[in-house]
Amino acid sequence: MSMGRARAWSWVGRYLPLEVLGTITALVAASVGYRVSGSLVVAAIAGTLGENVGYYALVVVRAVRGHAGSRRVQRLPGRGRRAWATAWLAARAVAAEFGPAELVDSLLVRPVLLWAAAATWGAHPAAWLAGKLAADAVFYAIAIVSFETGRRVILPDGGRVDTATGDAASGHMASGHMASGHAASGHMASGTAVGSESQPEGALR
Questions:
Q1: Cβ neighbours of 67 (radius 10 Å)
Q2: CB contact at 8 A, 157 and 170
Q3: Rounded to an integer, what distance in angstroms lies between the CA atom of residue 19 and that of residue 117?
Q4: Residue 162 to residues 51, 181, 187, Cα–Cα distance (Å)
Q5: pTM for the structure as a whole
Q6: What's phi and psi for 58, nearest 5 deg?
């Protein structure tokens, strides 16, 4: 498999579960919003908010789980410090990956396209789905660029790669599964996270 195709499949695996849940909540919210108000504008806003709730619920859960199990968090002393580090790293990861796309999407693109689709084809789920898919194209064009340029910040442990398997290290990978050629945690390579300076054991990167 070519590098480009492998990268494309990694995007599908990363974003498809989010998209499925977000689509369900968007269509339900838009339908309920229109039924209650009879307004296409309210339906468009409700669909946007509903999608954000479904989509980002899974984003946050995934980020928290990944960073909570990462080496940089697990090596910190004290439950409170690990909880704070997990919250900070997860929030930073979500903001880096989705912040720019979300600003453009929620404040402009998605409400306008949801409204335009319903105004053109009528207030029913097929029209809202068409508007949503058009907005998704814009959203993912921005989000994927953000992800690829910010992988060190977004992925647990900076997206370290196990040379034995070729897979990115996840937040649930035990340290014993890391390739022997990787440096010990106190001497992590400078490219693993923002703030590449060598830091003392237990320091949060």
A1: 25
A2: no
A3: 19
A4: 35, 9, 16
A5: 0.66
A6: -70, -35
**SS3 track for 64-114:** HHHHHCCHHHHCCCCHHHHHHHHHHHHHHHHHHHHHHHHHHHHHHHHHHHH
Tell me the longest C-alpha to C-alpha distance in the chain: 63
The region of weakest confidence among 116-125, 154-163, 189-198 is 189-198
Count, residues in the chain: 205
Distance CA 98, CA 112 (A): 19
> Which residues are paired to 161 by β-bridges?
168
The DSSP result for the chain, as a single string, is --HHHHHHHHHHHHHHHHHHHHHHHHHHHHHHHHHHH--HHHHHHHHHHHHHHHHHHHHHHHHHHHHHTSHHHHTSSSHHHHHHHHHHHHHHHHHHHHHHHHHHIIIIIHHHHHHHHHHHH-SSHHHHHHHHHHHHHHHHHHHHHHHHHSHHHHSGGGG-B-TTT-PBPPTT--GGGS-TTSPPGGG--GGGSSS-S---TT---
pLDDT (tens digit per residue) in 9-59: 989 999 999 989 988 998 899 899 999 998 888 888 898 899 889 999 999
pLDDT for residue 163 is more than 50: no
